Every structure is written in structure tokens, then in C-alpha cells.
Fold this sequence. Notes:
Blueprint: E1 2-5, E2 8-20, E3 25-34, E4 42-51, E5 56-66, E6 71-82, E7 86-97, E8 100-112, E9 119-126, E10 145-157, E11 160-172, E12 178-190
Antiparallel strand pairs: 1-2, 2-3, 3-4, 4-5, 5-6, 6-7, 7-8, 8-9, 9-10, 10-11, 11-12
Amino acid sequence: TMRNRVDQESFKYTFETYLKHGKKSYSFAGISFSDQKLFPKFEANYSLYNSFDKGWELETGAKFLSAENFSLFTPIVGLSKELATSRITLRNYLTFAESSMYYGNSLTWKEFLNDNRDNISFMTGFGNGPDSKSLNFTQEFITNKTFFVGIGGEKKIKPFTLSASTVFNTNNYSTGQRFNQFDFYLNLFYDF
Length: 192
């Protein structure tokens, strides 16, 4: 991943994988390192997903993040419901940083367009989750009152998946200042 802001350029190297544990469970694990200019220095995350009857899925996991002057530990609990042609996911975060706790959540709706699961999506939430790609990681970011909304889509072109999205983020700082930003993402994934 590369990020460029004003006069700084930064890189982040990420490895992510899904592991299947049987018919009704799988997990996701990820690790990343960066030069720490615009990304956290180190991130590690793991989530276990368990499927239940009638299209329900439970996620339990955690993420550890280490940036220049602080570290975060965040337990994650998510619940998804698969419908005929769509999927709704609610994820909740409790972030622990320097003897304080902060809450955040996100809601995502995906509408599947075909059997390949190409989709369009809508996402919204408040608070800062540790996997938000739209944040600059400074020590006070987790205390901001934040709201975001976005749209996106995915298209599978074997053996690749093309993903595009845009997110509007508004941050209300404890000083009374407000900061708005738009982020655009274009990703190409290789499936093997």
C-alpha cells in the first residue's frame, strides 16, 4: 500500500490470509509493517468466523496496532446476516489505549450482482476502528468523534478481484475543530 500526503510518501507491506477450519468456520489473519511516516509501524490482527443456521455468521477477533508514540489493542465482535442477494454486517470495536477505552462500530451492506459475488456496497459508522484506512495515525486519533459513509464495488476477473470505493470522513476533535476528508481506493487482488 502506498499513501501520499502533501510532501510525504509512505509504504506499508501487508500479508493477509484466510484459513478454512471446517464446514462452518474459517479465520482471517493479517500482519503489516511500514516506514511509520503515514501508516502505523506494525499491525497484527486475527478473526475467527463461525457460521450458523439461516445465514448468520459471528466474528470474534482482535487487532494490535503500534504507531510512533502509542499502541492500541482492540477486541472485535461482528455479526453478519446473509440474505437472498445481499449481506449485512455490523462490527463493534472496543479500543484500549493508555488506560482508556473507546467505542466504534461499522455497518456494511453488500448487494451481490451475480453468481461470482460481484457486488456494490454501502458502509457507514462512527468512532474509530483500528482498521480504518482513512485515518492518519496520531496519538489523539482514537479520541475524535468520527462519522463516515462510503460506497464501493468489487468485480471478479479470474484470477483477480478489482475493488473500488470512496469514503467521506468527518472528524470532530476535542478542541472543537472539524476535519473533513474524502478517500478513494482502487485495489487489485490476486486470488491463489
